[in-house]
Amino acid sequence: MEYIPQDHRLKTDRDNQQQEDAMPKLNDATSGMQGMIKSAQTMFAAAPMTGAQSTHFWQAQEQFLEKFEDFSTAWFKRRHDGTRAALEASRQLADGAMQNPQAAMGILTDWQAHSMERLAEDAKDCTEMLTHCAGAFVTNEVEAIEETVQTAKRAVKSSKSEPV
Asked: Please, what is the angle between helix 101-161 and helix 6-94, to 10°?
């Protein structure tokens, strides 16, 4: 029998105990990694089904932006028209209509009537824009859901047909 110093035996026993203590941690880490890998596999398996939703989301965004641009272009044109109309009304008033209250009231009434028409156009265009955007949103969502269902059906069908 070989002589093993007391210190060395204690150290070996301590090392063995540390290894045993580390084993559950290693097992926990391994099962944690396996869980993460399974989650990632599930996420990547579902990726083809999210493609339609992503595509339709960006198509709807493009439609929204086009309508916003149309609305804002028309809105700015009306603001320019309103500014020119106000400038013309102020010129007419300054050129002598202030001495004639009836003419001044006619100029202001005309300017105000056209201002109200522009505001009514703003409201109409805004309503049309929002209605179009809501329709585009619903249409794109319905199409995305239909495509997702078809993709899911194909995925299920192909998974059933593959040998295990």
From this structure: 150
How far is 58 from 64, CA to CA, in rounded Å?
10
End-to-end CA distance of the chain: 57
The pTM of this model reads 0.59
Using CA atoms, how far apart are residues 48 and 50, in angstroms rounded to an integer? 6
Query: What's the half-sphere exposure (Cβ side, CA atoms, 13 Å) at 36?
Result: 6
Location of structure tokens 């089904």 = 49
| CA 91 – CA 98 distance, rounded (Å) | 11
pLDDT values of the chain reduced to their tens digit, one per residue, 164 residues = 555 555 555 555 566 666 555 555 656 666 777 777 777 666 555 556 667 788 888 999 999 999 999 999 999 999 999 999 999 999 999 998 778 999 999 999 999 999 999 999 999 999 999 999 999 999 988 988 888 888 878 777 766 665 55
**Cα–Cα distance, 153 to 119 (Å, whole number):** 51
